[in-house]
Amino acid sequence: MSTHNENPSGDEHAIVPHGDHSLAPADPIADPGLHHDEPRLTDVEPKAERRAERQVAGMFALASLLTVAFIVFYVVVGIHPDDPHDGVDVGDVQVSNLTLGLTLGLALFLVGAGAVQWARSLMTSPEVVHERHELRSDDETRAATLNDFETGTEETGFGRRKLIRNSLLGALALLPLPAVILLRDLGPNTGGTPAQRKEHTIWAEGVRVLTDVTFMPIRAADLEIGQLVNAMPATFEELPEHGPERINERAKSPVMLVRMLPEDLHIAEGRENWGVDGILAYSKICTHVGCPISLYEQTTHHMLCPCHQSTFDLSDNGKVIFGPAARSLPQLPIAVDSEGYLVAQSDFTEPVGPSYWERTR
Ligand code: FES
């Protein structure tokens, strides 16, 4: 037996137009699932209907204008320098991102808002009445199901074999616990401070810097202004003697040596003696997700990661100036030994590679 009202058409499904109460079920209170709204202002007042129509059309028109503005800004606010040696101006990139984001974002918003206003104010919103069938099974089916269940229980001996039953119930009760315990991993990282979690490389005080081509030590005088050399520690090949546990430290050791004019450098406080005559050493491993990098733009001192375009300014302490990397390229403090060869002053002072160590929540 249905608890719903019969609709006037006598069909199982009937559509009642919004505001047309002549076809609505006679007793909506008896069926709390149905809502028979009052007619909207736009249903009864032609002026209100026209006003709503103008609002919707206005939003769509404004969205069109903003889309055109997006294209204009894309063309006018260029981020490409006239001189290809000048590099990308960060200010231009910010202005370009702002104008493009605002125009396209607002255009999309207005299309959505116009559609919502159209649906709420002007579209016919019929109420559909769907008569439900009886959900309860008949008595015969219920009795047969109960009988099947009891027969099954009897055959398994679930009621008689108390030892098995109780041990099974105990096992099932404990099974959800691992899932609850694993929720702890969603909480803050409790593995200590970033400094405590720092992974080491094989750089150490006095270790010479070798080129990764000839494996020869490098003198400061060997590097010219604007030159970049991929390098590694002199102990790189000795590591098998240190055992496989140092393989990870070895993999994180490659660096880039770059020589710039000392007057172009913006040295951070505390790093004043980390370089030699404008020669600085940076980790070669991107701090985003760890790609090796060496796409160097000599005139701007920018280092680009080919994987996701993170860009680091080597003249400004390896600072990130573009892209998804969250922190600067780690810098290796270097000096010269008594024979004029470049050597490390110590290991890196911060973790090398992706920034997972930084995440504390
Ligand atoms: S790994 Fe360098 S930007 Fe993603």
UniProtKB/TrEMBL annotation:
Q: Where is this region: Disordered?
A: 1-40
- The primary site where this protein sits is membrane
Q: Where is the composition biased (Basic and acidic residues)?
A: 10-21
Q: What region holds the Rieske domain?
A: 274-343
**Subcellular location, in the record's words?**
Cell membrane
Q: Has UniProt tagged this entry with the keyword tRNA processing?
A: no
Q: Which residues cross the membrane?
A: 56-77, 97-116, 168-187
What cofactor does this one take? [2Fe-2S] cluster
Single GO MF annotation: metal ion binding
Q: Which UniProt keywords are listed?
A: 2Fe-2S, Cell membrane, Disulfide bond, Electron transport, Iron, Iron-sulfur, Membrane, Metal-binding, Oxidoreductase, Respiratory chain, Transmembrane, Transmembrane helix, Transport
The superkingdom listed in its UniProt entry is Bacteria
A single Gene Ontology CC annotation of this entry is: plasma membrane
What topology in the membrane does the UniProt record assign? Multi-pass membrane protein
What family classification does the UniProt entry report for this protein? Answer: Belongs to the Rieske iron-sulfur protein family.
Record's function text: Iron-sulfur subunit of the cytochrome bc1 complex, an essential component of the respiratory electron transport chain required for ATP synthesis. The bc1 complex catalyzes the oxidation of menaquinol and the reduction of cytochrome c in the respiratory chain. The bc1 complex operates through a Q-cycle mechanism that couples electron transfer to generation of the proton gradient that drives ATP synthesis.
Q: What is this protein called?
A: Cytochrome bc1 complex Rieske iron-sulfur subunit
